[in-house]
Amino acid sequence: MVIEPRMRGFICLTSHPAGCEQNVINQIEYVKSKGQIDGPKKVLVIGASTGFGLASRITSAFGSNASTIGVFFEKAPQEKKTASPGWYNSAAFQDQAKKAGLYAKSINGDAFSEEVKNKTIDLIKADLGKIDLVIYSLASPVRTHPVTGVTHRSVLKPIGNTFTNKTVDFHTGIVSDITITPSNEEDIENTVAVMGGEDWEMWIDALLKADVLAENAMTVAYSYIGPGLTEAVYRKGTIGRAKDHLEATAFQISDKLKGIHGKAYVSVNKALVTQASSAIPVIPLYISLLYKTMKEKGIHEGCIEQIQRLFSERLYTSQNIPTDENGRIRIDDWEMREDVQQEVAALWLDATTETLPELGDLQGYKSDFLNLFGFGISGVDYAEDVNEVVEIEGLQ
Ligand code: NAI
Ligand code: NA
């Protein structure tokens, strides 16, 4: 069928298999163009189908010839109904890996469950023996706790005070004030349960117990800090508490990995348009101003540029891995540069519905958002009939 974008609120209901495939091919080409990295050999990526996780899988496979197992939670296609983009991305990744002679298998299911953990471990034992890198890149609004059975829902709220600031509806370009009432204790607990470090630690516990982590294995989870502008709703809000928890968990995991001389890291990444970030109030306005500023300075990056740089300039060099005073890897260094932040803060004050098209990169935001779903990708003929029912090769 001919597939077009169908928007509802902050989501797109359709996705384009050929566009998603081209996205994956473009990322692979980018990684190859940067040359080989003496990196990981056998990699598990949890959250491997979109965003930073997909970029991690591509960088491992096509930057270091690594065997990869990807875990994700995506919607399969049905006759006349497209799959979620991560499904098509993973189908394309598997195709490309096969052509390149690289081992790749995927598991589609709830990573928070014991079932998916066990299935993953069985697959590692059967095919790879031991793995040397575990990337933890889940972004989810809900988690059903495997022990208590309670379903937790995360919220994006400030803590303590009502927060009022500007936001943009990136579809219409309308800039308005948004007021968010503060969270309660339960909101914080739920958000930490979903996006904190407990599940990451459960994964590592399970992998250690099954003895499928190689000597010197590393695990990396992704976090975000951002500027003062978004602090109330991000880093000092409910999601920030979850990130505090995730970052603290890295130290606990590192202790557990001492026996195999392994280590857990958190990498703080740059703000980018993904399905997860477009749902957070205030962030899209910040991102559109940030993109404008960073593009003008020639330092803009997407997920693949960020992760390629993380692997080649932080994780896999002959030097020790550089970290900040809190033990975190910083690949948000260009976003957080003083000149960048000063300019964004100045633009923020002047941003209105009328000025934003000029001051910000609203167009870049919109096209990145559409790109997530495989639309607006150059080289793809959107008038052409495509088969929406695509299989993922190597799906367990
Ligand atoms: P994303 O939405 O693109 O990717 C989420 C991944 O998690 C997908 O592969 C999805 O299938 C998978 N997933 C979700 N729920 C699952 C479940 N129950 N079971 C199995 N898989 C599941 O998100 P993005 O933006 O790549 O986020 C990944 C991490 O990076 C998150 O921790 C996020 O906070 C962090 N991060 C994001 C930034 C941004 O601006 N987007 C900036 C810095 C960090
Ligand atoms: Na991801």
UniProtKB/TrEMBL annotation:
<dbReference type="InterPro" id="IPR010758">
    <property type="entry name" value="Trans-2-enoyl-CoA_reductase"/>
</dbReference>
<dbReference type="InterPro" id="IPR024906">
    <property type="entry name" value="Eno_Rdtase_FAD-bd_dom"/>
</dbReference>
<feature type="binding site">
    <location>
        <position position="224"/>
    </location>
    <ligand>
        <name>substrate</name>
    </ligand>
</feature>
<comment type="similarity">
    <text>Belongs to the TER reductase family.</text>
</comment>
<keyword id="KW-0276">Fatty acid metabolism</keyword>
<feature type="binding site">
    <location>
        <begin position="110"/>
        <end position="111"/>
    </location>
    <ligand>
        <name>NAD(+)</name>
    </ligand>
</feature>
<dbReference type="Pfam" id="PF12242">
    <property type="entry name" value="Eno-Rase_NADH_b"/>
</dbReference>
<feature type="binding site">
    <location>
        <position position="243"/>
    </location>
    <ligand>
        <name>NAD(+)</name>
    </ligand>
</feature>
<dbReference type="Pfam" id="PF07055">
    <property type="entry name" value="Eno-Rase_FAD_bd"/>
</dbReference>
<comment type="function">
    <text>Involved in the final reduction of the elongation cycle of fatty acid synthesis (FAS II). Catalyzes the reduction of a carbon-carbon double bond in an enoyl moiety that is covalently linked to an acyl carrier protein (ACP).</text>
</comment>
<keyword id="KW-0444">Lipid biosynthesis</keyword>
<keyword id="KW-0275">Fatty acid biosynthesis</keyword>
<comment type="subunit">
    <text>Monomer.</text>
</comment>
<feature type="binding site">
    <location>
        <begin position="272"/>
        <end position="274"/>
    </location>
    <ligand>
        <name>NAD(+)</name>
    </ligand>
</feature>
<keyword id="KW-0443">Lipid metabolism</keyword>
<feature type="site" description="Plays an important role in discriminating NADH against NADPH">
    <location>
        <position position="74"/>
    </location>
</feature>
<feature type="binding site">
    <location>
        <begin position="73"/>
        <end position="74"/>
    </location>
    <ligand>
        <name>NAD(+)</name>
    </ligand>
</feature>
<protein>
    <recommendedName>
        <fullName>Enoyl-[acyl-carrier-protein] reductase [NADH]</fullName>
        <ecNumber>1.3.1.9</ecNumber>
    </recommendedName>
</protein>
<dbReference type="Pfam" id="PF12241">
    <property type="entry name" value="Enoyl_reductase"/>
</dbReference>
<dbReference type="InterPro" id="IPR050048">
    <property type="entry name" value="FabV-like_NADH_b"/>
</dbReference>
<keyword id="KW-0520">NAD</keyword>
<feature type="domain" description="Enoyl reductase FAD binding">
    <location>
        <begin position="323"/>
        <end position="386"/>
    </location>
</feature>
<comment type="pathway">
    <text>Lipid metabolism; fatty acid biosynthesis.</text>
</comment>
<feature type="active site" description="Proton donor">
    <location>
        <position position="234"/>
    </location>
</feature>
<feature type="domain" description="Trans-2-enoyl-CoA reductase-like NAD(P)H binding">
    <location>
        <begin position="2"/>
        <end position="79"/>
    </location>
</feature>
<feature type="binding site">
    <location>
        <begin position="47"/>
        <end position="52"/>
    </location>
    <ligand>
        <name>NAD(+)</name>
    </ligand>
</feature>
<dbReference type="GO" id="GO:0004318">
    <property type="term" value="F:enoyl-[acyl-carrier-protein] reductase (NADH) activity"/>
</dbReference>
<dbReference type="GO" id="GO:0051287">
    <property type="term" value="F:NAD binding"/>
</dbReference>
<dbReference type="InterPro" id="IPR024910">
    <property type="entry name" value="Enoyl-CoA_Rdtase_cat_dom"/>
</dbReference>
<dbReference type="GO" id="GO:0050343">
    <property type="term" value="F:trans-2-enoyl-CoA reductase (NADH) activity"/>
</dbReference>
<keyword id="KW-0560">Oxidoreductase</keyword>
<feature type="binding site">
    <location>
        <begin position="138"/>
        <end position="139"/>
    </location>
    <ligand>
        <name>NAD(+)</name>
    </ligand>
</feature>
<dbReference type="GO" id="GO:0006633">
    <property type="term" value="P:fatty acid biosynthetic process"/>
</dbReference>
<feature type="domain" description="Trans-2-enoyl-CoA reductase catalytic">
    <location>
        <begin position="81"/>
        <end position="316"/>
    </location>
</feature>
